[in-house]
Amino acid sequence: MFDVGLGSSILLRFDNAGDPVTVLCDGGHRLSGLVHTELGKVLDGRRRIDLIIATHYDADHLDGLVPIILDDTIDIGQVWLPPVADDTLDERHGRPHRPEDLLGERMLNAEGGGVSASYKQHKQADIMRIEVLQRAIDSETTTRVDPEPSNEGSDDLDGYFRTIWNAYRAKMPLDGCEHAPDIEVEESRYRKRAWAFDDPRHWWWIAHHASILSTGRLAEAVEWMRYHPDHAVLALNFERLKAGAAKDAINVSSLQAVIDALRTRRLRPSFETIQTGEPVVYGWDRAAKRFITPASADALALTLMGPSVKLVERQRDHLPVSQSMFFAVLRWDEMHTVSVSNQLSYVARFDSEGQKVLVCGDSAFADFAPYRSRKGAYHVRLIDAMRDLNVVQVAHHGGANGHFYRVMNKAGIRTAKGPMFLLLSHEYDSAVRPSKTFAANMRRLGSAHVARLLFTNPPLSPNAATYKALVAPPTPGVTKSHGDVRLRFDGTSWIVDQHFVKV
Q1: How far apart are the C-alpha atoms of 453 and 458, rounded to whole Å?
Q2: Spatial contact of 43 and 71, defined as CB atoms under 8 Å apart
Q3: DSSP string, 96-117
Q4: What share of the chain is helix, strand, coil (3-state, %, to 5)?
Q5: What is the pLDDT of residues 298-339, one digit of tens each?
């Protein structure tokens, strides 16, 4: 696991009975350039990556892949990109998933970055509509505000979005998550009625009222806001929506850069999904030198546990800012969730030599729970695929991700016999990581648990005391306080070759 600061990058290497396989999961952010540099040292004589997995649609996981893909001295086999649908398409709400609607597919089929440029312009217009409503909140009375957005724009759209995002991060509490929480419609504690995005009875109602916000009829939304009981909460929700739209636009630039690099190398990526609650097992084909399904019994196995087609559809319908603005007005409480791009992270388990390694990026593990089910209800086959893990990438940098910890508990982590290593990657001197949620779950495991925590950077001090006993000691002779984590299986036991962090 590379020390990329904010972001993530994990390199897996399997001996595979003399047929070596190398998998790179994410590349961190390009500013560090670290992963590309370190790969040159780690790949040794075999300069091949058999599978690159971009776990999800975030700049701090995608950007570092670009120089790696463009390095023509590195042979690349397969590439999996996140299956994120283009939410700016003017299509029927609730329509079935179509592969050609995925952002990555649309970029692959278009030259010159036209798809990403259109996407960013769409997000800019969304932000401007939000700002109209923000000005209404700031005024003494909502009836005195010009309800039409201005035509002011920015020639430097990337700079425009980063300014908005950085301003949000500077003034808003992040609660262990660097991403702006976006809307996930759930039951409001004020209005005891939940509006289901996937319920046909509600489509017409949602679409009609959301269209008020997407077609410039903002005066009606301003009128609605007069009846909202807490304009401070409403202002906070709009601030989060604006930052979320800016982050979507930043991420699309990163995805476009990866697509451009793949096009240069004439590599065709795939966008993998599962059916709801049904993991898919891929096996390493020695002749084809790639992961295929169905898998043979003796092959190096990759079990995919998400995202599902249904989740891709649902998050596509959640993303449009016009609908999110409508629900921000409808809701009388704050909107909190892990961002949509994170919910669409790949969750994959690798099986080799009787050992199980889990990679999950920033996944919210939303696919594990049947949609709108009671808390704690999970798909049985997905839970079974999470049992008896030996190495686990802790989701979302140890963030406030309730589903992940509940899934781990459901899969039996508290009674695990071991060995087990939990990997955490986050920025140096973080003010929020790992989160209080992570600390609370580690405390419940107890100091005698078999799990050992491995960090690229020191954890947040106030919470670290609660799980200090679980942190693996630094390897002898290390002189730095942070760095790459190296872990290997020698055929009989796991060995920590490199760990710098001391709590």
Answers
A1: 11
A2: no
A3: PP-GGGBHHHHHHTSSTTHHHH
A4: 40, 15, 45
A5: 779 999 999 999 988 887 776 555 555 555 555 545 555 446
* DSSP string for 157-208: HHHHHHHHHHHHHHHS--TT-SSPP-------SSS-----TT-HHHHHHHHH
Per-residue DSSP letter, 21 = E
Tokens of 66: 């670009």
pTM of the shown model: 0.86
Residue whose token pair is 């903002």: 218
Classified as helix, coil or strand, 65 is helix
Contact residues for 267 (Cβ-Cβ < 8 A; gap 6+): 69, 76, 79
In whole angstroms, what is the distance from residue 148 CA to residue 340 CA?
28
Two tokens, residue 8: 């993530």
Contact 210, 326 (CB under 8 A): yes
Nearest 10 degrees: Cα torsion 59, 61, 62, 67: 120
Half-sphere exposure of 388 (CA within 13 A, CB side): 6
Using CA atoms, how far residue 187 sits from 228, 259, 327, 460, in Å, is: 17, 38, 11, 33
Nearest 5°: phi and psi at 7? 135, -165
Give ∠ CA 241-244-247 in degrees, rounded to 5. Answer: 155
